UniProtKB/TrEMBL annotation:
CDD domains: HTH_XRE. It holds the Pfam family DUF5753. This is Helix-turn-helix protein. Residues 20-74 form the HTH cro/C1-type domain. It comes from Streptomyces brevispora. One of its GO terms (molecular function) is DNA binding. SMART domains: HTH_XRE (SM00530). InterPro entries: Cro/C1-type_HTH, DUF5753, Lambda_DNA-bd_dom_sf. It comes from the Bacteria. Gene3D superfamilies: lambda repressor-like DNA-binding domains.
């Protein structure tokens, strides 16, 4: 796996930075000369060229004009916007509340045919019961000091969003670590309802639920960060501070390969249900 899930996002930023640096050098301009033509301090030029500051669309247009290639601005602006969309901080995504964030994924889910989800810590969102989701999202809202902590409404919206599991034209492969069954989210009733729902959802025709048993875990693949693979061209990785969106084919393939290796370590059907029932019994 990559050293950091955000490596693809940083690599995309670095690619924009290199392209701008090459334009400056190709025009025979020093860092200071370009800064003078663009009307900013030369330190900003250095920050942009080193990938520490993302250029705005106006910055790119000024840069290209200063280098005598204004026709390249539109392409570089598009490349820069793509790079910045790869790394989306949660604090920006939840400014309008957690319910809005749940609703924003509905259309994307409906357009996706194959979902592959791996989670080492939580029940995947598409399999969460309302009580579990509300408790989780309320806790997230409090932890992040979100001004609009609409955890209960967000939980209901998450369940509504999850109806895609029952719609035709989709397949779902979920992998969780056995420890997920024991991490208490909400009160005992909410956790019991969640575990019971796993037994029901895991039996749906379009759903494959695999659980990696703690006792027989192989050493060939260690637990990974939470990640979702949508079809074969998009991966979303969840970090504490941000969501990393990956579209680079080689990185997508890396996550698919990790998913398949983890999938081979999991148990399914009756064996998976036995692990869930064991966790339900442990609630008592």
């Amino acid at each position: 796996m990559p050293l950091s899930p955000s490596s693809s996002a940083q690599a995309a930023r670095d690619s924009v930075a290199r392209r701008l640096r090459d334009l400056r050098k190709g025009a025979g301009l020093t860092v200071v000369e370009l800064a003078v033509r663009c009307g900013w301090h030369h330190a900003k030029t250095s920050r942009v060229e080193n990938g520490r500051t993302a250029p705005s669309a106006l910055d790119v247009r000024r840069w290209c004009a200063a280098c005598g290639v204004p026709e390249q601005a539109a392409d570089i602006v598009a490349q820069s916007l793509t790079a910045e969309s790869m790394y989306q901080e949660w604090r920006h995504q939840v400014r309008s509340g957690l319910k809005q964030l749940q609703d924003s994924w509905v259309d994307f889910y409906r357009s996706t045919q194959l979902f592959r989800v791996y989670s080492p810590t939580l029940v995947p969102g598409l399999l969460q019961s309302e009580g579990y989701a509300a408790a989780l999202l309320s806790t997230i809202g409090a932890f992040r000091d979100i001004p609009v902590n609409d955890g209960a409404e967000a939980g209901a919206a998450r369940v509504e969003r999850s109806r895609v599991v029952h719609e035709p034209g989709h397949r779902f492969v979920f992998l969780i670590e056995e420890a997920v069954l024991y991490y208490r989210i909400g009160d005992a009733d909410a956790m019991a309802a969640q575990l019971g729902y796993l037994l029901t959802a895991g039996a749906l025709p379009a759903v494959s639920l695999g659980i990696v048993p703690a006792a027989t875990r192989e050493r060939g693949m260690w637990p990974q960060e939470v990640f979702h693979v949508y079809d074969d061209n998009f991966v979303s990785v969840e970090l504490l501070s941000a969501q990393v969106n990956i579209t680079q084919p080689s990185d997508v393939e890396l996550y698919v390969r990790a998913f398949e290796r983890l999938r081979g370590m999991a148990v399914y059907g009756a064996d998976a249900r036995a692990l869930v029932v064991k966790a339900i019994d442990a609630l008592d």
